[in-house]
């Protein structure tokens, strides 16, 4: 596997700054990483129904908006270990990043949505999934 620095080892250095700057935005033009408030809505079970399903032979979490019936499918692709970069939790783990850093700037954390706990803060040097949203 080739990492973002062009090497083959996992880069687990602590990121600087508290924002997902445009220069390293992983989303295509016109898209962005969702913020804290947007991923918080995925965790609100009064607004959404969350269920594990298999879609097109891929296992993942389907989130259905209770008011509109709009569905979002998030594949259970796992995550990357913060020390080694090895994949863990494939077909059982689903987490996606937000663009919002944890309030305590001295910590190496940002918010992510996870199927188990809703919105949590996790180490920014770990590999979590990106789900880009359209810029409004």
Describe this structure in words.
By secondary structure, the protein is mostly beta strands. It has one domain. It contains 1 helix and 10 strands. Strands 2-3-4 form a 3-stranded antiparallel sheet. It has a 3-stranded antiparallel sheet with strand order 7-8-9, covered by helices on one side. The protein has a two-stranded antiparallel ribbon with strand order 1-10. A hairpin with a 7-residue loop joins strand 7 and strand 8 (109-114). The longest helix is centred in the first third of the chain and has 8 residues, at 36-43. It is globular. The relative contact order is 0.22.
Contiguous helical run count:
1
Count of individual beta strands: 10
Helix proportion of residues, in percent? under 10%
Q: What are the segments in which pLDDT stays under 50 over at least 5 consecutive residues?
A: none
Strands ordered across the widest β-sheet? 2-3-4
Output the structural class.
mainly beta
Overall shape: it is: globular
Order of helices and strands: EHEEEEEEEEE
Largest sheet descriptor: 3 strands, antiparallel
Average pLDDT over all residues: 80
Rg, rounded, reads: 15 Å
Note the gap between the termini: 34 Å
User: In percent terms, what proportion of residues is strand?
Assistant: 35-45%
How many separate domains?
A: 1
């Amino acid at each position: 596997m080739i990492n973002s620095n062009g090497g083959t080892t996992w880069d687990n250095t602590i990121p600087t700054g508290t924002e997902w700057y445009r220069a390293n935005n992983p989303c295509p033009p016109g898209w962005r990483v969702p913020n804290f408030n947007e991923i918080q809505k995925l965790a609100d079970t009064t607004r959404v129904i969350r269920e594990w399903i298999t879609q097109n032979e891929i296992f993942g979490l389907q989130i259905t908006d209770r008011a509109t019936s709009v569905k979002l499918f998030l594949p259970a692709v796992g995550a990357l270990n913060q020390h080694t970069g090895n994949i863990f939790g494939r077909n059982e783990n689903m987490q996606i990043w937000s663009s919002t850093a944890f309030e305590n700037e001295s910590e190496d954390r940002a918010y992510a949505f996870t199927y188990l706990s809703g919105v949590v803060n996790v180490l920014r040097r770990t590999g979590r999934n990106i789900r880009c949203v359209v810029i409004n």
